[in-house]
Design a protein that fits this description.
The complex is a heterodimer of chains A (279) and B (67). Chain A is an alpha/beta fold and 279 residues long. Chain A folds into 2 domains: 118 residues, Tetrapyrrole methylase, N-terminal domain (Cobalt-precorrin-4 Transmethylase, domain 1); 116 residues, Tetrapyrrole methylase, C-terminal domain (Methyltransferase, Cobalt-precorrin-4 Transmethylase, Domain 2), CATH 3.30.950. Chain A has 11 helices and 10 strands. In chain A, α3 runs parallel beside α4. The longest helix of chain A has 17 residues. Chain B is mainly α and 67 residues long. Chain B has one domain. Chain B contains 5 helices and no strands. In chain B, α3 packs antiparallel against α4. The longest helix of chain B is centred in the first third of the chain and has 10 residues. The radius of gyration of chain B is 15 Å and the shape is elongated. The relative contact order of chain B is 0.15. Chains A and B meet through α2, α3 and α7 of A and α1 and α5 of B.
Chain lengths: 279, 67
């Protein structure tokens, strides 16, 4: 029987803010790892992780302007997997939620598992969680559609304007080459996105360009604008677009009837005080 | 020896009592924490752009391909 130490991988998120959104479990896995890979993009966040475990390696050096991010992410995953193959207990720490809009974390887990080794992911606090808190949007209120801007532009998706729309990475909207690391080339994408949104919403529909705060002394950036002004609104690589719902859609009488209900009945159930007053 | 801004920001993000003090008296709290005069000045001037420039790199923020 082999006594060689088997490597394993735990992928954690460190939250959007520099340290305060890191879960106790994530912190513990970082502390107890043989080595930690960091995809954090913030030196203060890196400092917080290094304070927990000095054996840290940044993945950020793999980004290069003009280099395909497809290659960058593949190299990130391979770097993580190699350390696991070498028998290390590896923790990969990504900012936010490590599984939300993160290609290399999922790839690394898939590759490690394919080798018959253990790989798990822990939940973390994503930008969407910050957005919900900062904007006071409960995704259950109207329902929610959440998607990446370029994917939406390129493929045949449908918007339901009665649901809240959360559109990610508008700073790279329409950018196909994957070689750009700035939000300076997204104008054609934003023009097209605006055209599509205008099929569903009026020009003056209020929309929000949002950026979560990363530093505890800074507030989130919340730009409320009219839809028609989206193209001329400054965006960054961490901007997220929020399109508030047009309101709740009408009840489907046919579905209610199949359940033996009427609109009046469900309305009364939802507002018990009103119906009690009527009795 | 002066403490680093990184330490101060991590502490502010994880210690609500310190954050409360900071909100009431940013310069006094930063000075008492042990930041250098130069670093305290950043907080006095509310020079968040400089802080962002020094510590954040949004070009490394994108990490997904899905289209």
């Amino acid at each position: 029987m082999s006594t060689a130490k088997k490597g394993e991988l735990v992928v954690v998120g460190t939250g959007i803010s520099v340290a305060g959104q890191m879960t106790l479990a994530a912190k513990s896995h970082i502390e107890n790892a043989d080595m930690v890979f960091m995809g954090i993009m913030n030196k203060v966040g890196e400092h917080a992780v290094k304070a927990l475990n000095p054996n840290c390696v940044s993945l950020d050096d793999l980004y290069k302007e003009g280099k395909s991010r497809a290659l960058t992410y593949e190299q990130m995953a391979d770097r993580i997997v190699q350390a696991v193959v070498e028998g290390n207990k590896v923790c990969a720490a990504f900012y936010g939620h490590a599984g939300v809009f993160v290609t290399p974390s999922h790839d690394a887990i898939r590759k490690v598992r394919a080798l018959g080794l253990s790989a798990t992911m822990l939940p973390g606090i994503s930008a969407e969680d910050c957005l919900i808190a900062d904007l006071g949007i409960d995704p259950s209120r109207f329902g929610c559609q959440s998607y990446e801007a370029t994917q939406f532009l390129f493929r045949d998706y449908r918007i339901d304007p009665y649901m809240t729309q959360i559109i990610w990475q508008i700073g790279l909207a329409g950018e196909a080459t994957l070689k750009v690391l700035s939000a300076e080339h997204n104008k054609p994408g934003l023009v097209l996105l605006t055209d599509i949104l205008l099929e569903y919403y009026p020009e003056d529909h209020e929309i929000i360009v949002y950026e979560a705060a990363t530093l505890p002394i800074c507030a989130p950036k919340i730009q409320k604008i009219q839809l028609i002004d989206l193209v001329n609104t400054p965006t960054t690589l961490i901007s997220t677009l929020v399109i508030p719902s047009l309101g709740l859609p009408k009840y489907r009488q046919d579905r209610l009837a199949k359940l033996g209900l009427t609109e009046q009945e469900v309305s009364n159930y939802r507002n018990p005080n009103l119906s009690e007053k009527g009795n | 020896m002066a403490k680093s801004i990184e330490e101060f920001l991590v502490e502010l993000d994880t210690n609500s009592e310190l954050l409360e003090k900071y909100k009431k008296d940013p310069v006094g709290t930063a000075t008492k924490y042990g930041l250098s005069e130069e670093d305290v000045k950043l907080f006095e001037d509310k020079n968040w752009d400089e802080l962002e420039k020094r510590f954040s790199d949004a070009s490394k923020a994108v990490r997904v391909i899905d289209y």
